[in-house]
Every structure is written in structure tokens, then in C-alpha cells.
Amino acid sequence: MDPLLGHVKIVAMLTSTSTALPTKSFVPNLFVRQRRKTREVMVGSVGVGGNNPLRIQSMTTTPTTDVDATVAQTLSLVKAGCEIVRITAPKLADARALGEIKKKLLALGCRVPLVADIHFNPECAMEAANHVEKIRVNPGNYADAKAFKVKEYGDAEYEAELTRIEERFLPLVLKCKTLGRAMRIGCNHGSLSDRIMNRYGDTPAGMVEAALEFVRICRKNDYHRVVLSMKASNPKVMIAAYRLLALRMDEEGMDYPVHSGVTEAGYGEDGRIKSAIGIGSLLNDGIGDTVRVSLTEDPEFEIPVAYQIAQPYQPSSKGEGREEKGDSLTYVDSLYSYTRRPARELSIGPFRMGGEHPVRVINDFSKWLATEKYAKGKALKILGLLEDQLKAGKDNVPEILEWTVATRAELDVLQDCRRALGGETSRLAFMGRFSDLALAKEGLAHVHLALFAAPRTLAGPERTTQFKEFIRAAQAAKVPVMLESSACERGVLEAARNLLKGVELCEAEGYRDLVLSFNIPSAEALIANTRLAVALLRERGAHADYPFHLRFLGIADESELQIRASVAFGSLLCDGIGDLVQTGTGENALKDLELIYNILQGAGVRITKTEFVSCPSCGRTLFDLQTTTERIKQKIGHLKGVKIAIMGCIVNGPGEMADADFGYVGGAPGKINLYVGKNCVEKGIDFDQSDERLIQLIKSHGKWVDPV
Ligand code: SF4
User: Fold this and answer.
1) Nearest alpha-carbon partner for 537 in 512, 567, 569, 565
2) Where are the alpha helices (DSSP H) in 180-232?
3) What is 330-377 written as a DSSP string?
4) Which tens digits make up the pLDDT trace of 280-299?
5) pLDDT tens digits, residue range 205-216?
């Protein structure tokens, strides 16, 4: 039987509950992307799900009762390409203002569907349904409470609570059904109700169950204009939750579309990276029908980022529905909770990789140095600086340098540089990329990792003979070997099969100090091939636990590279795959490094700086989020590993900031509340004293270090 026929078998466990999940995946085929089939839900005149394009949406930040400002921002969003606009309605006055906003927009010829964002107040939802095309409710606070109370619910008591929820939610369901309104049932990781938290914990399973309880009420009443979301600020959590949602919906015969987003992603490069990791990974899995990127920036800036993330997954894009089939191969232990793939440990110069070691960083400096191609003076100066930074324990420095050795002169420079850096006492490691066998054999004495890419003209028996000779030489020199397989025109998954042939050759020679890599400039093909290679290796047995080098080069445009590399690496890293990473345009190696480390931080696999979680702001925001976030970042952005949440309001903020160490939350106009975890420790601080009090709070918890 073709090994790529059949079905992917997954053994999955939840994050923090012991509930076992069925041994099946949320998609028929993990190796070939196919969009999950859903019904079409009309939001006004805009279709979501089905065969519709991935819809792009955003949210206004103006006070809703400022009708003119909200109309102006809605028009501006539409001009930027926004297809559905959400507006907050925390109070009855806001819900009524939606009627005015709708009228003014229609008078101006703007028919964009509006969504009312409701929390806590069913009365607002009922009023808003008179005016707008869609209502968003959060099961965590629509009919349930969140006071972080611990309480055991017996089955009977839990059932009674569900009956109470149905009574509270049903009028809205019936009204939306009568008026033809759509509804998003949107769970957030940070705002699960006490009832759900006590039964399921703070888990993806809890998020999914909270939503499905509401969906079952809709179905019971034959109301199906439903869209679902499972947002979290942690991409690993949201990926797990959306996958579990897809699986559960299939099991219950539900085909509702999905609204995809990473909540409180932050701003700038970090916000874009986190969004691309979460949303892009899921789109690549076939999950997602409408997208919102949440940035702490003007909402118009969210739109191009959302289009950029969604573009390869639009129905018209290539790659959809290829004929290659999946297999009864196990891919990773769990698709529903993060577990790092076990990989054998290797020493690469002074660094250990694989196992529990940090995901290592490799970078190609040769293009950057090319202005004076391998001019010894310049190369040495730069390498000396990098070495000093490593010695000083700085973050964001390269650990392994890739060095292309195609000529004798290049090998000479490498040799000289290594000698000048102190030879074996150097803190930098080097990987040699060789194409000439004689140079490769000689160069093994000067590198810590070696790759032999014989020219294509040597394909066939001659290449195989050379390759074997190289492997024997590497084995004798005790230098680990990187095996690389390139994109192949014969089939999207051919690169994985070719990589496995290389593994077989090395194993036949008795050499297993291998690092596996693909040279593929497409995020989607890289993910598919890496997944298949991981699955095929698992079939070979526990000994085939070779570490993976995730390499994504070949995109010159910086913003495109930022998004696509985040999707490619984020998707794999959040599945626990990847031990060494490399990306960049090659124009500026230090900038490339910054991107790599930011992606590792965004995926939560290697933390090298302060983690900021900041809400995107909305009509409830009590201070200027953009300037405040920037100001606080300037003051405490050097605190490595500390997670700070900056939230615009008390209504939603404390719940949404979930697992932050410290919270800075708008408590009232001009007043800030400070949190440690989920506990409010200082209330009503004057805005102009709030930064200093936050710093004092961090100091009092022993998490402060002075900036250097
Ligand atoms: S935390 Fe408050 S201000 Fe920020 S987006 Fe959420 S509801 Fe709006």
C-alpha cells in the first residue's frame, strides 16, 4: 500500500485534565492542506464559510456613543478592505447608538455588515439585534459569572446551571432567528466562567465545551447562523482550542464556520508575528473562515496584515485539494496540547541541541559580509563582536554561523577566522556548507556541523558514492552532518521522501549524528514536508529521533518574510517540532537574528525579552493604549521573561490577560488598577503615578533588574 493512503492517527491528551481524546485528527489529512468544510453563514450580504473567501474583519476603537467618530472609523476600515466591522456595545446607550450608526452608514451608501460586541448584558444584545447584522456573545460572561471562585459542581447542579443559561440565552437566539441575524459565540481563554473553570480547568477543552453548550441551544431551536471562535493570547493554547473545536464539531455533526484570531497580540513586529503564528498555523490546518488580527495600533493597520496572512489560503490560491493522500502515520503525540518532539541530543561546538535544550539559532553571514566578500579584516571584526556578545551573555546573538565553502579561498578565510577566534575555545559554532568533496573532507577539521550538497550534475551513482565518502569522513572527524532536501517538482511531498532516502544512506553507513533540514521557500510546503518526514521517522522507530533544522529563506520582502516565516516556524514549533531555526533576507544578518528570536518568543519556545500582552483597544478603552504601551515598554522592556498585560478596561481586562505576571488595567477614567496574576492589588492609582507604582510592584516581587 502507498504509505500516503489512509488516515492520520493521533493519540491526544488535553493540557491539564486527564481526559483522553479519540485517537483521530481534526482533519482527514495533515500533510495536504484542505479547508475544513463548513456551511455558509450570511452576515448581512457577506457570506462567511462555505466556498467564500476568507473574510477580513476588524473592530472600531471609538466610543460607540460618539456616532460620527464611529461612522468615520467604520468608513476608514472599509476603505482599507475590512469586510465586517465590529463595534462594542457595553451599555444600552451604546446598543441604541448602533441604530444611529447603521442609519448614517446606509445614508452614505456603506452596507458593510456590523457586529455588536456584547459582554455581560443580554439587554444590550437584544437591543443591538434590532440594528446590526451579527451579535457576538462570550459564553464566559453572557449568562455566567467570573469571580475566580472555586466550587465543586455535582452533575445535577451543573445541569441546573445549563437550564438557567438556556433561559437567559434563548430570547437572543429566537430574536436573531426571526430577524435573520448571525451570531458569533466567541470564547476567550482568559474569560472562562467559574463553572467551566471548576469542571474543565483553564484548558482548550473548557473553551470548546463553553462554546458548544451555547451552540447546542441554538441547534435545539433550529437556529444555525452561527460562527465560533476560541481566542487566546498564547498561540499554542488557541491552536489547540480551535483544533479541538473542529474535532468536536465533527463528532456532533456541526459544520459552523470559524472566526480565527489571537487576542491581545500586542503591536509592531511582535503583534504581527504572534498573529501569523496562531492564525496562519490554523489556516494551514484548514481551520478558519474569517480572520481578525488584533493589534494595539489603529485598526486600519490590522487589515493589510490579515490579508497578508490569509492570502495563500484563499480559495483561489494554488495548493488547495491536491490529490496526495494522508496516511495511518502518527505525526506527534498530541495535536491538542504542546509536547516537544523528543530529538536526540547533539553537540554543535559549545552548544547542545535537541533534547530539552533551547531551540538553537543558526544564521548565514556570508551574504551580509559580501560587500567585501570574505575580506578577512571585516569578517574577523564582525565575528569578534559576536563572540564578545556571546561571552557577555547577551540575548539575540547567533549561536551557529553557516559558512559556504565553495572555493579554496573561502576555506582559508574560515580557517583563519576560527584560529583568530581562539579555535576550540571560541563561543561561536560554525556549520560548513560544502559542494566539493575534497574541500569538504579538509573543511571538516574547521567546522562543528557539515552539509554536503553535491551539484545536481553529479546526480546518480557518482553523487551517492561521493556522499557516502563524505559521511565516512564526517564520522571519522566526529562532526554531525546536516542532511538537506530541496523542493521537488515531482510532488509537494517528494522532498520528505528524498530526505528519508538520505537518512537510510547514513544509517547504512552506521552514522546517526544527523540534523535534518529542508530547503523549501514555501511555508506551506515546508510544513507539509516536515510533518511527513516526522511521521515517516516515527515509523522507523525510536532510534530515528533526529533533530530538525527549520530553514526558511528566499523571500526578499521583509514584511512578507516576517509573516510567512512566522507561519512556517510557528506551526511546527507549536507542534513541538524544530531544534534549530534559520531565516532572513540575508541583507542584514543582525536584523535576521532579531526576526528569528522574535518568532521563537512569539511561539513561546525561547524567551529572550519581556512579554507584552496588550489589548487592541475598543470603545471601552480608558487610556491611550498605544502611547501607554510604548511608554511602559521603554521603562520595563528589559525584564527578560516577565509577562506584562496592558489592558484598556476593567470590564474585560482582568479576565482577558489570563496568564500574565503583572497587569496594568484601566480602572476608571484617569485611574489605573494593578494586578499580580489575576488578583487586583492596587486600585484607583492616578494615571501619572501608575508607571512608577508598576515598577515598585515588580520590584516588590523580586522580578526587577536594573537596565544595563
Ligand atoms: S480589554 Fe477592554 S478596552 Fe481592551 S479591547 Fe477588551 S474590552 Fe476593549
Assistant:
1) 512
2) 194-200, 204-220
3) ---S-SSS--PPP---EEETTEEESTTSPPEEEEE-TTGGGGGTT-HH
4) 999 999 999 999 999 999 99
5) 999 999 999 999
In angstroms, what is the span from residue 615 Cα to ligand 1's centroid? 6
Give pLDDT < 70 ranges for the chain: 1-23, 144-151, 317-329, 366-378, 454-459, 489-490, 652-656, 658
Tally helices (H) and strands (E) across the chain. Answer: 22, 25
Which mutation among 621, 646, 673 tests ligand 1's pocket best, with the greatest number of atoms within 8 A of CB?
A: 621
Ligand 1 pocket test target in 136, 656, 657, 664 with most atoms within 8 Å of CB: 656
Q: Which atom of ligand 1 lies nearest, measured to the CA of 651?
A: 2
The 10s digit of each residue's pLDDT in 403-430 is: 889 889 889 888 888 888 777 778 889 9
Q: At 453, which helix (H) or strand (E)? A: none
Q: CA 577 to CA 595: how far, in whole Å? A: 19
Q: Phi and psi at residue 482, in whole multiples of 5°?
A: -95, 125
Residue with cell 543582525: 590
* pTM, 2 dp: 0.91
Instruction: Read off the pLDDT of residues 55-94 as tens digits, 9 standing for 90 and up.
Output: 999 999 999 999 999 999 999 999 999 999 999 999 999 9
Q: Is 492 in the pocket of ligand 1 (CB under 6 A)?
A: no
613 CA to middle of ligand 1, Å?
A: 12
| Ligand 1 site, residue 647, Cβ cutoff 6 A | yes
Q: How many whole angstroms from 622 Cα to the centroid of ligand 1?
A: 9
Q: Look at the block and give the residue holding cell 518568543.
A: 601
CA angle, residues 443, 444, 450, in degrees to nearest 5 = 100
Distance of alpha carbon 27 from alpha carbon 495, whole angstroms: 22
Q: Hey, CA dihedral for 391, 394, 399, 405, is it positive or negative? A: negative
- Residue of minimum CA distance from atom 1 in ligand 1: 653
- For residue 46, the SS3 value is strand
Is residue 648 lining ligand 1, measured as CB closer than 6 Å?
yes
